[in-house]
Amino acid sequence: MAHNVAPFAEYILRVDGLYKKYSKKADWAVENVSFTVKSGEIVGLLGHNGAGKSTTLRCLEGMLPFEKGSISICGKDVVKDPVSAKLNMGFVTDDHAVFVKMTGIQYLEFMADVYGVSKPDRERRYQELERVFCLGDSVYNLIASYSHGMRQKICMMGSLIHKPRLWILDEPMTGLDPRTMRAVQDYMDEYAAQGNGILFSSHALDTVAKLCDRVVLIRKGKQVSDLNVKEIAARDPDFDFEEYFLQNERQN
Amino acid sequence: MKDRIDFGMVGALLRKQRQEWVASFKKGNFNAVGFVFRVVLIVALVAVFVVFFGNFLDIYLDVMTGGAPHPQERLYEVLSIAYTLILIALIISAVAQINRALFSSDDMRIMSALPVGANTLYISKLITIYFGQFAVTAVCVLAVNLTAAAHLAQGAWYYAATALACILMPLLTLGIASVIALPVHAVKLFLKERFVLSFIFIVVVMAALLLAYAWVLQGVKELLFGDDLRYFFNERIMNGIARAVGALYPANLMAGLFVSRGRLRCALILLAVLAVCVALSAVFIRLILTRALRAGNSGSTSVHMRKRKLKGSRSPMAALIKKEFLTIFRTTDYAFSYFAVALVVPLMVFFCMSIGSSLAERLVAVDCNLELAIFLTLLFGSLSNVFCTTNISRDGKMFYSVKAMPVSPYTVIFSKVILCLIVTVLSQLLSAAVLAATGYVSVPVALFLLLVGVLFGFAQICIATRIDFDHAKFSSEPDGEIKESGNTVSIIMVAGLAASLLVGGAVVLARMMFALRGLAEAYAWVTFAVAGVIAIIAAAAGLALLMYRLKSRYYRFSGGLL
Question: What's the pTM?
Answer without folding.
Answer: 0.77
